[in-house]
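Q: I'm writing up a methods section and want to include an example of the input and output format. Could you take the sequence below and give the corresponding predicted structure tokens, formatted cleanly so I can copy it straight into the document?
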Amino acid sequence: MKAELAKKWLGKLTKLNAATGSGKCRGKAPHKPLLLLCLLDMAEAGELAGHTFTRTAGLVLRFKSYGALVSERWPTRLDMRMPFFYLRTQGFWQAFTMEMATAQSPESCFVCELHEEFFDLLADADFRLKARLLLVSRYFEPRERVALLASFGMIAPHPASGHLLPRAEKGYSLADAEMVGAKLNKEAEEAARKKGRSARFAVQVVSRYKFTCALTGLSCLTADGAAIVDAAHIEPFAENQNDDIDNGLALCKNAHWMFDEGLWAVRDDGRVILAPQRFTENGPEGLRLQPYAGRLLQFAASVTLRPNPKYFGQHQMFHQL
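A: Here is the clean output for your methods example:
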């Protein structure tokens, strides 16, 4: 029975009725498959607790990050409200207003209630894997496939050709991998892989630190799911292109800029140190850097992830602190 349901819903994923691009946009519109890939990602991360979902910060973050991987082919702004509303017509979910009345437009759609069968399948690792591979292979171009698979941590060199293909895991064969894999030259493969790893870094760092700035402790989310924080590299990315999650901090915009400029750093014990000779500042205490000298980094109460202290030392060496 479960196999039959999986086949039914995988079949639905092949018929997303994606619009065809025009002008600067080419190929099939990526909105619908991107949103479904985001939901699969959230299900894997344990962020889909029930049948209903909204435009949460985690969903918005993923949609923007993964959407950036298709920006060369689809340079116009991707509006998540469109697939959020229109995928209801293909049975994946029902769309409602904030008051739980039936939504009549993308602008009025705030809550989606997943179909019972689809919700149950999202909890199945084998279905998630097959659904990801199907969506990536069917709706995206070769470079995008490599980048998306890298963003999901699902890519490795082919054992024979060396080309980048989905990492061999239980649930799909080498033939499946070759179907999704992209025959690109090494330079193009590496560039696409780096884009994907950067997207993965942004999603994992910001979401796993619960959208909270490690310097100020500030978390600010808009009603549409936008967040005040970015994913910051501790060891500068220019040094070793290090996108390991333990080389990351979630920082608000000002704190991120000041950290990258070497105006502040972190000791091995997690306390903030400043380089006061490098800057002057004026303004309210809550916006100035000086009051944070000697304070511990701040993490949301439920967060267990921590940065690797060795990267703080490399950050200090880079900025000669």
